[in-house]
Specification:
Largest sheet: none
Helix content: over 70%
Radius of gyration: 28 Å
Distance between the termini: 68 Å
Structural class: mainly alpha
Number of helices: 5
Strand content: under 5%
Order of helices and strands: HHHHH
Number of strands: 0
Length: about 150
């Protein structure tokens, strides 16, 4: 499914949820809720981003594999994009990625899928042998114009 179609579905779902919440609690409360959820998300984004950056630098300093911290940084970046996108569904998805336990579950699944994709083929060290002997290389001689 193309990304554009998924984006259209996401926008339609966000609008439907905003309209439903607006009808249930009123337009002003809906707007205040959207602002409040985004503010909480930005606060969590700052805190988790700083923690991840600190963990990443510690991993490098201790010569430990920084792969989990790099994955966390990517997931926090996705959460940041989701917070910027207005709506309740995207904010809930962003908050899901910003909480460390749920982000760890997503990271674990993401890294295991990436590892499975890189382990599809066996690599065998070997040497390429040409079964047909090659002819002697063709040499083209050239002379400078002043030598002739």
């Amino acid at each position: 499914m193309p990304v554009f179609v998924l984006l259209l579905i996401a926008v339609a779902a966000e609008i439907a949820v905003i309209v439903a919440v607006g009808q249930a609690v009123g337009a002003l409360v809906t707007i205040l809720l959207l602002i409040a959820v985004s503010a909480v998300g930005v606060s969590l984004l700052r805190r988790q981003g700083t923690r991840t950056l600190t963990s990443f630098t510690e991993a490098l300093r201790n010569r430990r594999d920084p792969q989990p911290e790099m994955a966390d940084g990517m997931l926090i970046g996705v959460a940041a994009a989701l917070i910027v996108f207005p709506g309740f569904l995207s904010d809930v998805a962003a908050l899901f990625l910003l909480f460390p336990p749920t982000r760890a579950a997503v990271r674990k699944r993401m890294l295991s899928r990436a590892h499975m994709r890189t382990q599809r083929f066996d690599v065998v060290d070997g040497e390429v042998v040409d079964p047909e002997p090659r002819q002697a290389p063709i040499v083209i001689e050239s002379h400078r114009a002043d030598e002739v």
